[in-house]
Design goal:
single chain, 613 residues, mainly alpha, 2 domains, five-stranded mixed sheet, 5 strands
Length: 613
């Protein structure tokens, strides 16, 4: 897609040498400034968000108190945990260790994701730089750092930040493997994706088709060796993901927490059911989005541009699609091992498969899932922009580059208009500047003396202005609840402390004091995990969340709960969570049994049963 692909008499190839050889002086300070800026953006005033997502914060707290709870990702620490969160535990391993070492706090809950975000930015730079040079690497990494949904996620405690980091690490390993047909690097890519599975299950595998395609197409060795290397990497993936699945299956169920979100206490069933095909079809407790913005809105090919996803991820998406199509066309006659085309296929395949799944899935689809698209979009814009600029003396390249700038300005105007009261002049600045810069590119203004540098800087500024401003505004807003959203206004769904979220008892000092003074294995049991999480964070004690996250998991059973009560392991039963008494979170008759055998009292507005009386 460079001048070399537009005019075959020019055989200049993009720089892909390691930084130690021939690195320009501006590279190292630029990379340092980028990483420092990302760290400030993700860490500044981080504690304003409190514990962020209370559900996962409570699991972090439990992991800091009990090693079995840490290993399985339990919501509570009592006897190793009664029930786990509805995701695999890898991201909780990180925050749980941080909380155990440095003490449980808002920072140890949220800072691990910020550090993972900085690492993701750095890894994207390293990955793109190897195929497309320093400038493309910096452009791509900067675009990722400022993407609004990335800023949101790297300041919040959800599995997605670690997932994104692991997938980028996998992409880096694939690039290294493809350079010299290295089986070792390809196996390492399989290991990264195996741990991505332990972070967010099958979503970590959405990049697999692109990884396999690139290696089979571009690795400089025979097809037999390429197939053998892919087989070895597949084995590494199965081992790195499967060891924990096997551990859960082999561990005696009576001495570990119930696997939340599953129907049969199985991690594999959770991966294939509620967190797997149920997300695609809408079954297994996965309601569709429909008109609910927090659940992605209606499915369809335009979902990523719609009201739920648009301001999260689509700022540079049109430009990325133009870069992908133009790049594949301009490199259509390149050799099989061409690095630029391989890079386009890597990130384009990542974007196509993941974007298509997010657009068409009928189950639970939260807008923040789109952070998984951010690295691919950023890489395509960085690679495409840099290579088209190198071919700027040719009309087709200039036209494609001008189209990227124009469509980014126009679409940025549309997205900024969705929050019309916030910096209303900005959208006009973005639109007018984009049209002016695109016109200058199209007519060849770069040919004038010293104009090329100014024009390139203007193009970068214009294309990043809208998303960058929106990303910085996202960092300035505190986020809480189960479904955070980016932007200058807080529209988070299921907010926690002070936000009226379900089961919020953190402000109830009388109830908090009551639970904090208990000495039993569990201070209390309550209906639903979100109510339990709120009580745990307020009291520092273990609380059983009967029914798990959705309140409908078959755990604990009535017989199991009765045994714990008779053994004196549970002190109180607190009502008022998801479903209320006898409702969705009744836990198979637990609420009725408690009401029939114990006397209710009122503590700070909550109905409490003393299970020791």
């Amino acid at each position: 897609m460079t001048a070399a692909t537009l005019d075959r008499t020019d055989q200049t190839a993009p720089a892909a040498t390691p930084p130690e050889r021939g690195q320009p002086r501006w590279v190292r300070p630029s990379v340092f400034a980028l990483l420092l800026g990302a760290a400030v953006l993700y860490l500044w005033d981080l504690s304003a968000s409190g514990y962020g997502n209370e559900f996962y914060a409570a699991a972090t707290q439990a992991g800091s108190q009990n090693w079995t709870a840490w290993l399985f990702g339990a919501l509570d620490s009592g006897s190793g945990g009664a029930i786990t969160v509805d995701k695999p535990p890898a991201f909780l391993w990180v925050s749980g260790l941080a909380a155990r070492i440095f003490g449980f706090s808002s920072w140890t809950v949220l800072a691990p994701q910020a550090i993972e975000g900085v690492a993701a930015v750095g890894m994207l730079y390293l990955t793109v730089r190897r195929t497309s040079g320093y400038a493309a690497g910096l452009l791509s990494a900067t675009a990722l750092a400022l993407t609004p949904v990335a800023v949101l996620m790297f300041r919040f405690n959800l599995p997605d930040p670690l997932l994104v980091l692991l997938m980028i690490c996998g992409a880096y390993a694939v690039v290294r493997a493809t350079e010299k047909a290295s089986a070792r690097w390809l196996v390492l890519a399989g290991v990264f994706l195996g741990f991505a599975f332990l972070t967010k299950m099958l979503q970590g595998f959405l990049v697999l088709p692109a990884f396999v395609l690139v290696y089979l197409l571009a690795a400089p060795t025979t097809i037999g060796r390429r197939l053998a290397h892919v087989g070895a990497a597949a084995l590494a993936l199965v081992v790195s993901a499967g060891w924990f699945v096997a551990l859960v299956e082999l561990w005696p169920a009576a001495s570990r927490p119930y696997i939340g979100g599953s129907t049969d206490n199985s991690l594999l069933e959770l991966a294939l059911g509620y967190n797997g095909f149920g997300r695609l079809s809408g079954g297994d407790g996965n309601p569709g989005g429909g008109g609910n913005a927090g659940f992605g809105g209606s499915s369809g090919l335009t979902r990523l541009f719609g009201a739920s996803f648009g301001t999260e991820i689509s700022w540079l998406l049109p430009a990325a699609l133009i870069a992908l199509v133009a790049g594949l066309w301009f490199t259509r006659t390149a050799p099989r091992t061409d690095k630029t085309r391989a890079a386009l296929l890597l990130w384009g395949g990542w974007l196509f498969v993941t974007g298509l799944v997010f657009s068409l899935m009928n189950g639970i689809t939260h807008p923040y899932y789109s952070v998984a698209l951010a690295p691919a979009i950023a890489a395509l814009v960085g690679i495409g922009g840099r290579e088209l600029w190198r071919g700027r003396d040719h009309t087709p390249a200039r036209a494609a580059l001008a189209a990227m700038v124009t469509v980014t300005g126009v679409w940025g105007f549309v997205l900024l208009h969705r929050t019309a009261d916030w910096l209303p002049a900005l959208r006009w600045v973005v639109l007018v500047a984009a049209i002016l810069v695109a016109t200058a590119i199209a007519v060849g203004v770069h040919q004038f003396r010293r104009a090329a540098t100014v024009l390139a800087a203007a193009a970068i500024l214009v294309t990043g202005l809208g998303a960058g401003a929106y990303g910085v505004a996202t960092a300035a807003v505190a986020h809480q609840g189960s479904i955070p959203t980016s932007g200058p206004v807080t529209n988070d769904f299921g907010r926690g402390p002070g936000g009226g979220g379900p089961g919020d008892r953190t402000g109830d000092s009388a109830l908090t004091s009551l639970l904090a003074n208990t000495t039993t294995t569990w201070a209390a049991a309550t209906e639903g995990a979100q109510q339990a999480a709120s009580l745990e964070l307020a009291s520092g004690k273990a609380v059983i969340g009967i029914g798990g996250f959705g309140g409908s998991d078959p755990a604990p059973t009535l017989a199991q709960f009765q045994q714990w009560v008779h053994e004196g392991k549970v002190r109180y039963y607190v009502t008022g969570g998801m479903g209320g008494m006898g409702g969705r979170g009744s836990g198979g008759g637990i609420a009725e049994w408690v009401a029939a055998n114990y006397q209710a009292t009122t503590v700070g507005g909550a109905t409490v049963y003393d299970l020791t009386s």
